[in-house]
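During the reporting period the student researcher (J.K.) took over the structure-prediction task from the postdoctoral fellow and processed the backlog of single-chain submissions. One of the processed entries is reproduced below for the supervisory committee.
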Amino acid sequence: MTARIIIIATLIILCSADLFAQTNSAPVTKKRRFAVYAGIGPNYYFNNLVVGKSLVNELNYSFSARLMWEPEHILSVGIETGYYRLYSLNTPEPTHAHIANSAIPIQLVLSMKFLKNYYFNFSMGQSILLNKVNSQSYGNFDASTWSLADFSGTLGYRHRFKSRISVGGEAKFFYSTGFVDRNIALLLVGGYKF
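J.K. obtained the following structure tokens:
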């Protein structure tokens, strides 16, 4: 009987010692599951125009922003938008017009991390396509339309500082089905977890 009491008392003491060790450990940090990212950089337009192909300025700029839900797994989801200047061109005299086509995507994003700091994003959704024409002879013409099935793919690198702020770079391919426009952008990206 005494041996059983000693064994039970020893087990209770050992179990409680483990519990006390857990309560005295470092404080648990708050898990931050949402993050916002913004990036800006140059892009290259894959020229598919037939008329005025030689007049196209293929080097332009892109801005991207996304809000992500990032649980403690390799997959995360979110929504992305931005402003992508697809191309611009200037026509010669006598019309001397400036034409600029841009896209504003509104897409759902699925992101997957691999290795430690690398990730791949796949986005799909709609885009607003903007066409602006400024002509000295004929005035200004602006038009917009929806492109209903656009997508983009992103390969990126992110370095996180103090678990909340991150800086990185992305190579982003964008495809618009509206007028079969394609471009690739190199973006400098900053992020903040909240």
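The committee noted the following: The first helix runs from residue 2 to 23.
J.K. will present the remaining backlog at the next meeting.
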